[in-house]
Design a protein that fits this description.
This is ABC-type transport auxiliary lipoprotein family protein. With 367 residues, this protein is of the alpha/beta class. It contains 6 helices and 14 strands. It folds into 2 domains: 99 residues, Elongation Factor Tu (Ef-tu), domain 3 (Beta Barrel); 166 residues, ABC-type transport auxiliary lipoprotein component (Rossmann fold), CATH 3.40.50.10610. A hairpin with a 7-residue loop joins strand 3 and strand 4.
């Protein structure tokens, strides 16, 4: 007997411990856990699919208790009565909204409580009435909505058939008169100036090749930044003086804005004069010994009197310290045989060739 006694005591102790753990878990899940609790009666005006005793109770999304009892209302079998046990500190009011929410992929239902301002009288039993349809799942709501849509379609089947028949008649009429409709639309397009935009024609400024015999060359590095100009000259359009729309130039475009075009062709001209010592743009060269600063004053067609292409530049040579060592105004014009794009470009080519020759000769002498 003495040998068996310890085994009996150990078995009894283990069994008691197991029962104590199960009892604690049962009490924690069904009696509300630690702290004072308050019970409230809840009535659902419809089915509560999946709701079980022990289901959670959420107040504003925070778990505050659980369902402790479920049953059918004896006076109305369509209603469901439930008892919930929540933490006594939960601010449940007589106008607190009650609902049923299905959580997660499995759709586990929980009782939800929201808001409320009216405090119940002391000692008065509090019954919370859930909103109608609170227990309706998303699936059931979709079925009800489809059922209502089906009912509306059934009630209006006659007018719907008439409407569809009218659409068919209208579409048949359009098909029979497609040619006429295309003609009407084409007329409207012409009247409103619509349609595909006219193709722009791009013209370039030609770089002069005959710049004279190479005499003195550039003995220092030279950079030509993009010329400055007033806003009116920052364009690819042909400019006129006096300003106006000249017939034949609506689709005219220079290959680039006038300052960038003049910069590119001046650099090309220096290269044609002496490729070994040609200047570069300021973005292509670090700190150059000199900069040739160009300000474009005129680059236009003058139509008063004899038509002519006019180019006017102001040039300054600046050293590394920003000191102006030389400056010059270069102006020229070329007669136009005819005020049209091709003749205008030919005149600008001739005028620019004179400007480039004069500017190169002056620059190589001044540097």
């Amino acid at each position: 007997m003495e040998t068996r006694a310890p085994y009996v005591l150990i078995g009894a102790f283990v069994l008691a411990a197991i029962l104590a753990v199960f009892g604690f878990v049962y009490w924690l899940n069904n009696s509300g856990g630690i702290g004072p609790r308050a019970n409230y009666h809840v009535q659902f005006q419809g089915p509560v699919p999946g709701l079980l005793v022990g289901a959670g109770v959420l107040f504003n999304g925070i778990r505050v208790g659980e369902v402790t009892q479920l049953g059918l209302a004896p006076d109305n079998p369509r209603f469901v009565n439930a008892t919930i046990s929540v933490a006594s500190a939960t601010p449940v009011r007589t106008d607190t909204k009650v609902g049923l929410e299905f959580q997660g992929l499995t759709g586990v239902p929980v009782v939800t409580l929201e808001g409320g301002m009216i405090v119940a009288k002391s000692g008065e039993p509090l019954t919370l009435i859930a909103e109608a349809g609170a227990g309706q799942s998303m699936t059931q709501a979709a079925r009800d909505a489809l059922r209502r849509v089906d009912s509306v379609l059934e009630d209006n089947s006659g007018p719907l058939k008439d409407t569809i028949a009218n659409f068919k008649t209208f579409s048949d009429g359009l098909a029979r008169n497609t040619g006429k409709i295309d003609g009407i639309l084409a007329g409207l397009e012409k009247m409103t100036g619509g349609g595909a935009p006219a193709q722009k024609i791009t013209y370039d400024l030609r770089t002069p090749l005959e710049l004279g015999q190479v005499g003195k060359t550039l003995s220092a590095s030279l950079a030509i930044p993009e010329p400055t100009a007033v806003a009116m000259l920052q364009t690819q359009r042909m400019l006129f003086s006096p300003v106006g729309d000249i017939k034949g130039f609506a689709d005219f475009l220079w290959a680039d804005s006038i300052p960038k075009l003049v910069q590119a062709r001046l650099i090309d001209s220096f290269e044609n004069y002496d490729i070994a010592h040609a200047p570069l743009r300021t973005t292509d060269l670090g700190q150059a010994d000199y900069q040739l600063l160009i300000d474009i004053r005129r680059f236009r067609i003058a139509t008063e009197g004899e038509p002519r292409a006019e180019i006017g530049l102001s040039a300054r040579l600046v050293d590394k310290n920003g000191k102006v060592i030389a400056s010059r105004l270069i102006e020229t014009s070329e007669k136009l045989d005819k005020v049209e794009p091709a003749a205008a470009v030919t005149a600008f080519d001739a005028a620019f060739a004179r400007v480039a020759r004069e500017l190169i000769g002056w620059t190589v002498q001044a540097v």
